[in-house]
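Our platform keeps sequence and structure together, in a single record for each protein. Because each token names a local backbone shape, the row as a whole describes the fold. One such record is reproduced below, unchanged from the form in which we store it:
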Amino acid sequence: MSTGDVGATIDDRIDDYRGALFDLLARPTVSATGEGMDEGADAVREFLADHGFDARRVETDHYPAVYAERLADANDDASTVLFYGHYDVQPAEHPGAWDSPAFEPTVRDGAIYARGAGDNKGQFACHAFAVDALDRAGELPDVNVKLLVEGGEESGSRGLADYLATGPDALADVDLVYVADGPQHRSGRPTLIYGNRGILTFRLDLTTADADLHSGNFGGPVPNAATELTEVLASMVDGDRVTVEGFHEGSEVTDADRELVDRLPDDEDEIREELGLTHLATDRSYYERLLLEPTLSVNGLDSGYQGEGSKTVIPSEATAKCDCRLVPGQDPDAVFESLRDHVADEHPDVRVTKGTTFPPMKTPVDAPAAGPVRDALAAVWGDEPVELPVLGGSLPAAFFRRVDALADVPVLVVPYANPDQGNHSPNEHLDLDCFENGIRTTAAVLRRLADQRLAD
């Protein structure tokens, strides 16, 4: 399989591709606040049209999505791949922590610095650049290429769910959903992931009195909101194990999943050193606990006096914000019910409020589509890929499974961004070699999919 022409085309066009990406990165598209979202959808549509796609804006009950396609010429047997991405970004808080303005893309130290560089504009743009390069090189393979770029991934993907609930005809022939999102494995090796953990966020609130009270006058007989809420939280876990009845119901771990985890690099000592940890919170291996079991995390606690010095009060209110990362087989709604029942039994005055949910998603590790992707990664990056049963984080990829035509279609997560991309943090960046290799990877995947013909 010759790749010289398309490789040379990418080399010749890389400055133009970088400039086109910079135009996207310079646009704030913050779904949390709505800043720039409407104009951002139009910019993405124009960007995809400029790179050879028939692109259109799709209205949803949240922010617009953009659907684009480049279909094979008169070939009903061609495979169809759907690339998914999102154009919305996290807020660029704490501008003083950025070494350059978040929406003024800058190259330094071999990387593109900007909000959205890795999450996710820089990654979904690689697909468009790959198709453009293949076309210009006269090597566009016999594959139907479709893109769906949503505008609300950072705020719950409500618009994506709304669009998919219509059972769109445009997605009825898809053979593979391909998600370039997230960072590669911390080793820097190319990474292939067969699913993602789901997420459930929830909030606990407790009010015990009309106001904070003097600890000398009322301490002892009067309930303390902070103490009582932390007791409820403590009742939900024992060490690193979640003890809520019914929490684990439905969770599935296959022997193939365990084999993948067993093959992952043994880098626990490095992780502890890099993070400044004195110990891990589990007696099991790092990746076994991270990837094969669900979690319950306290994200934040708020109660009582937080100012300078001391104030001797009994807090009358306490709040805890929490999340659960869920493994394949778990239902976020059922998990929430088990948590709510547990809290009601422990303390009936604690209010439980559901937040964001994404269901978990899993593709069998022996899916035929994985072979071409695995081979493309090894060829482009010059190293065998790290394979993970699921991504530790959460993506809305499982929403595709709600479409009848996609219920059994493989969904593969193939991150192009460097492990230290800093998504959601100041100084988010995408290494230039990751950007270029992302373009080459998409091109190589498309060529291999044409050879394998998943539609058969």
